Protein: DNA-binding transcriptional regulator, MarR family
Amino acid sequence: MEDSLKLEQQLCFPLYAVSRQITQVYKPLLDDLDITYPQYLALMVLWESGKQTVNQIGEKLLLDSGTLTPLLKRLEQKELVRRKRSAIDERIVEIALTSSGIKLKKKAACIPVKMFEQLGISMKEAEALKNISHKILNQINNHSK
Structure:
């Protein structure tokens, strides 16, 4: 029973540590673009899907609007996105890329390749890790509803 409380027996610790370390590997690449990792994630949603509401971005990134709003305000200050209240419902805030935000996608295109090179795992291993991670996220999200 006591062994179950050893750090080396925990699944949560290596997941936590890997997440932190991967974010640190991203940092110099994102510093060159003058954005943070959470800002990068929000921009990826917009690059992929185009204009989105704050809630839509939050659903995709598993973030609440209280976390997302300051992040999006900073992106707006950097003139990468434009925030606008919906004409249909003023409670809804729509987020769209500016021309600078669209141009940044081209500069960011090399990041996934550079990251993959630094991780030192095969494509097959990366895909397996991603699938297991999604399985865990789905399980947790289904239980929290």
Notes: Residues 30 and 40 are 8 Å apart (CA to CA). The domain at 2-108 is CATH 1.10.10.10 (Arc Repressor Mutant, subunit A). The helical segments are 12-31, 37-49, 54-61, 65-77, 99-108, 111-119, 123-144.
